[in-house]
Design goal:
It is a single chain. The protein has strands at residues 2-12, 25-33, 40-46, 57-66, 72-80, 87-95, 106-113, 121-130. The protein is mainly beta.
Length: 131
């Protein structure tokens, strides 16, 4: 068994999906092993919510106990916390196996929303994997 550590630094240029005020973003992580037969879910975790902020800084760390990096995919969803139903603000998928992760920190800048006009939205993460 190994430990995947995800450090969520910040997100930038998030799309405002609220009609009144600014969005209240949080980040949801979902980890899944995509096997040829029988995918395995390794759980989801979420950050704190940052009210009225389109460039939130988190500085939060998340840990997953996983058997291997083989076929592992981390889904990063940027969500807007709303009273009735949370809105999706952006998303990306990261294939962990291809990153060559180790106990040395690997910084990532992943695009979560592609704008036609203006700056794209990104999340900034640092990943490590220790066996």
């Amino acid at each position: 068994m190994g430990i995947l550590t995800v450090f969520l630094d910040r997100a930038t240029n998030l799309k405002d999906v609220d009609t009144i005020g600014k969005s209240d973003p949080y980040i949801k992580f979902e980890l899944e092993q995509n096997n040829l037969v029988g995918d395995k879910d390794h759980g989801e975790q979420k950050s704190t919510t940052k009210e009225n902020e389109l460039n939130p800084v988190y500085g939060e760390t998340f840990h997953y106990n996983i058997p291997t990096l083989d076929n592992m995919e981390l889904t990063v969803k940027v969500m807007d916390d709303d009273v009735l139903k949370d809105d999706k603000m952006g998303k990306c998928k990261i294939k962990l196996e291809k990153l060559g992760l180790s106990d040395s920190p690997t910084p990532l800048r992943e695009k979560v929303y592609n704008r036609v006009f203006g700056d794209d939205s990104y999340v900034f993460l640092t990943l490590t994997y220790t066996e």
